TrEMBL record:
InterPro entries assigned: Methyltransf_11, SAM-dependent_MTases_sf
Name recorded for this polypeptide: Methyltransferase type 11 domain-containing protein
Coiled-coil annotated spans: none
Gene3D superfamilies hit by this protein: Vaccinia Virus protein VP39 (3.40.50.150)
Organism taxonomic ancestry: unclassified sequences, metagenomes, ecological metagenomes
Domain Methyltransferase type: 56-152
Length: 248
C-alpha cells in the first residue's frame, strides 16, 4: 500500500504552510479533554514538561511554524523534514531560523548525537510510514536523541490498518490521501522498551495521558507525551555518523 508520497508535499508545500501558519487546520473537535483545543495547547504544555530548552521538531512541515515559534519564545529549537521544498520554504519565510532546519528523512538515522534534546515533537508523521519502519528506526532514533528526563510528543492517526480519505484543503476537488493507522497501546509498548513512559495528567484540567481529537477531514487522532527515564542505559540504535550534536 502506498501512503502519501513526498511528491504530494512537494506539490502542496505552499498551501500546507499557509494552512499551518493560519492555524485553520490546527484546531481540534471532539477532543477527549476540554483543555485540548488545538496545536498550541500541546506546544505550550510540552515546554513546561521538558527539563530544558533544547527542542527538535521531527517532521516540521512546510514553513516550520513551530520551530519559528519556539525560537521566538526563547527556546533552542531545531527542525527536520524529509521534503526539501518544505525546508526551503521555511528558510524563505523565516530566515532567522535557516541554520536550524535541514532535510532529514525520519526513516533513516538522525544526524544528532545521543541526548541532544530536552523535548522532541513528532506530529502527524508516522502515519506516512510502515509500522516496521516506525518501530525499528523512527521511534528508537527519537528516543536516542532525547536527553534523560526529556519528553517526546507523538501524534498520529489512531486505529488499525490503512485508510484512504478525501481531503478538500488542497484544491477545488477532494484529494485522495492514504494513511497508516496506529494503535496507541502498541506504540507505548515500543516506547517503554526504549525507556520512555507515559506522562499522565496530575489533575482533571491538566493535559496528559492518552488524548484524542478529530481533525478537519475528520479523522481521529491520538497524542501523548512520554518521558525518558533519567537512568535509562539500554540500547536504542547504533550511534549515527551524522552532523553531530545540536548547536547550543
Amino acid at each position: 500500500m502506498k501512503f502519501d508520497s513526498l511528491d504530494f508535499y512537494r506539490e502542496h508545500a505552499s498551501r500546507y504552510s499557509n494552512l499551518s501558519h493560519e492555524f485553520t487546520h490546527s484546531l481540534y473537535t471532539d477532543s477527549s479533554l476540554t483543555g485540548l483545543t488545538g496545536d498550541m495547547d500541546l506546544l505550550k504544555r510540552i515546554v513546561k514538561l521538558a527539563p530544558g530548552r533544547r527542542g527538535l521538531d521531527a517532521g516540521c512541515g512546510a514553513g516550520a511554524r513551530d520551530v519559528h515559534l519556539l525560537n521566538a519564545w526563547g527556546y533552542q529549537a531545531y527542525g527536520v523534514d524529509a521534503v526539501e521544498e518544505n525546508v526551503s520554504l521555511a528558510k524563505s519565510l523565516h530566515p532567522e531560523i535557516a541554520d536550524l532546519i535541514q532535510v532529514v528523512d525520519l526513516r533513516e538515522p538522525l544526524p544528532f548525537d545521543d541526548a541532544s534534546f530536552d523535548f522532541v515533537t513528532c506530529n502527524a508523521v508516522i502515519q506516512h510510514m510502515a509500522p516496521q519502519t516506525t518501530e525499528q528506526t523512527t521511534l528508537p532514533e527519537l528516543a536516542r536523541v532525547l536527553a534523560p528526563d526529556g519528553v517526546l510528543q507523538l501524534m498520529f492517526k489512531v486505529g488499525s490498518g490503512v485508510v484512504t480519505v478525501g481531503d478538500k484543503a488542497y484544491g477545488s476537488q477532494s484529494v485522495a490521501r492514504t494513511f497508516q493507522l496506529y494503535s496507541e497501546y502498541r506504540l507505548l509498548e515500543v516506547l517503554k522498551e526504549l525507556g520512555c513512559t507515559l506522562v499522565e495528567a496530575s489533575g482533571k484540567e491538566e493535559l496528559g495521558g492518552l488524548m484524542y481529537f478529530n481533525d478537519i477531514k475528520p479523522m481521529r487522532h491520538c497524542v501523548f507525551w512520554v518521558r525518558k527515564s533519567d537512568s535509562w542505559s539500554g540500547s536504542t540504535r547504533p550511534t549515527t555518523t551524522g552532523a553531530g550534536r545540536a548547536k547550543r
